[in-house]
Design goal:
heterotrimer; A mainly alpha (225); B mainly alpha (51); C mainly alpha (226); B: 51 residues; mainly alpha; 1 helix; C: 226 residues; 82% helix; 0% strand; globular
């Protein structure tokens, strides 16, 4: 059943992505001041939103684990955090490349970029913390608490643009600026595609996590017998 | 100017996709590793039960 | 009232234990002085730019020296099963956390207050221009990183490679409060008052302190016991 879900969602995501790539490269015109480099935004912003959504999901599952002690939530936490980390990395890299063209610099330490990098470091730390603890319940408990702490950075990342003067541009899709409806549509569709992709990858990773746990328990059984 | 931008934009998209592809490849390799472990363990247990 | 009594008991116990041997506080003080000296070789203390950014350097010194004290916070309870005794004691997890955090705060801030005049001398910096605002920033910033250091010391108390993992996890978490403290200190040393442009940093620091103190008070028991 889950296999079918994974394949189904995967196909929808692939079709959407293909449609979007066609739209991005073939149909949409160049932007007035930036030229063609602006097209990166169609991946940069949706990747960021997807990563923040993943962070929110892991917050919920971490709290759920602490409340219910059901290790299923722990498995979901690690799967979704890994996927979110990949999307956040894609976000940072695409942003850096865009910045190189538009501002002439690969990086700057303004509030948005710094907090986004810190967010990446924190969730990478989460994965490292899990490696350092072998016992499953202790690992789940400690990493769930760490996840709650790590999430405090996420609102800082999201609102850093409003709270500080940043080098990073003000929001384009929901700020005040007028945007071409075709571009808006493509951006939203790409967001949907990336979210579907994130769900597919999380499900795959979740299944691997479950198989890994089954292996661990089999191994314990094999050594006990 | 535009050609340089085109190269960079290409690199940008390539980078974003590369990161995701690397992640997918890591998932695939992990899948293979755990399948092997699972097979090995199941074989070990079957041997023991068979004995 | 019980809660505060329990907190003070824990705080006094930790302070007494530390002040008897003075291991951590001496190490932290020595480390802080050494880094201050080293930085003054890396950056020419008479350059205008160095004086401008010296506030930032100061907080790096405080963060590193403070970590020496904070990492030991729960780690020192491991020998002789003291940690088990603390967990079994009839005090709430929040009281345990607050007591340890207060003791750590006192230790770290004493190291900082000793380093401050040394800093003023080595870097030729007039840190007394806005002394009360500076002390406020010092207190708020130190409390912020003390809270994080203490809770992460508890988090990492039983894991492999504790000495390595604890700093690795703590420093990214500290970046918001350290950045605020650095920006505010640099402004205060340059003579600018708090408020206006600075206010967003001050608010971030206060919010950081409130949020992480509340989270830690609630979660310490979960961390140690489950």
């Amino acid at each position: 059943m889950r296999e079918k879900l994974i394949y189904g969602l995967g196909i929808v995501a692939a079709v959407l992505l293909a449609r979007n790539l066609y739209s991005i490269f073939m149909q949409l015109p160049d932007e007035a001041s930036q030229g063609m480099i602006y097209r990166i935004i169609f991946f940069h912003v949706p990747a960021a939103i997807t990563a923040m959504l993943c962070a929110s999901v892991t917050l919920i599952t971490s709290v759920a684990y602490l409340l219910t002690k059901n290790l299923r939530y722990d498995a979901i936490s690690v799967a979704v955090t890994e996927v979110g980390l990949a999307f956040l990395a894609a976000n940072l890299v695409t942003g850096s490349i865009w910045g190189r063209i538009i501002w002439g610099i690969w990086w700057t330490w303004d509030a948005r970029l710094t907090s986004a990098l810190v967010c990446w470091l924190l969730y990478a730390g989460y994965l490292m913390l899990r490696r350092a603890i072998e016992e499953p319940t202790a690992r789940a408990r400690i990493s769930a608490v760490f996840n709650i702490f790590a999430f405090v950075d996420v609102p800082i990342v999201i609102f850093s643009i409003k709270w500080w003067r940043t080098q990073h541009p003000q929001p384009v899709f929901w700020g005040g600026g007028k945007i071409d409806p075709d571009m808006y549509l493509t951006a939203v569709l790409n967001l949907v595609a990336l979210i579907l992709l994130a769900v597919v990858l999380s499900l795959i990773r979740l299944r691997q996590e479950e198989v890994q746990r089954e292996i661990d328990s089999l191994r314990r059984y094999a050594h006990a017998v | 100017m535009d050609t340089r931008n085109f190269t960079f934009m290409f690199y940008g998209f390539l980078a974003a996709w590369l990161i995701l592809v690397i992640y997918v490849l890591s998932l695939v390799s992990r899948e293979r590793k755990i399948s092997e472990q699972l097979k090995g363990l199941k074989g070990l247990l079957d041997d023991r039960d068979g004995k | 009232m019980d809660f505060f009594r329990q907190t003070l008991v824990i705080a006094r116990k930790d302070l007494r234990a530390e002040l008897r041997t003075k291991e951590a506080i001496n190490a932290a003080l020595a480390f802080s002085l050494v880094i201050l000296v080293l930085f003054s070789f890396a950056f020419d203390p008479f350059e205008k730019e160095t004086i401008e950014m010296s506030g930032g350097l100061l907080w790096i010194v405080f963060a590193f020296a403070g970590t020496l004290v904070l990492n030991r916070s729960f780690a020192r309870e491991i020998p002789n099963d003291c940690l088990d005794a603390l967990i079994a004691a009839p005090i709430s997890g929040s009281a345990l956390f607050l007591g340890k955090a207060l003791a750590n705060f006192v230790l770290v801030i004493s190291v900082e207050l000793v380093s401050l005049p040394v800093f003023g001398i080595f870097y030729n910096v007039h840190w007394t221009t806005r002394i009360w605002s500076l002390l406020l920033v010092l207190a708020l910033g130190t409390w912020g990183f003390t809270v994080i250091g203490t809770i992460f010391s508890a988090l990492t108390v039983n894991i492999r490679l504790r000495e390595l993992m604890a700093p690795l996890l703590v420093y990214p978490m500290l970046i918001p409060v350290l950045m605020s403290a650095m920006k505010l200190t640099m402004d205060l040393i340059a003579g600018k008052p708090l408020g206006g442009e600075n206010e967003v940093w001050l608010r971030l620091m206060v919010a950081f302190d409130v949020i992480f103190t509340s989270l830690s008070l609630v979660l310490l028991e979960t961390v140690l016991v489950g």
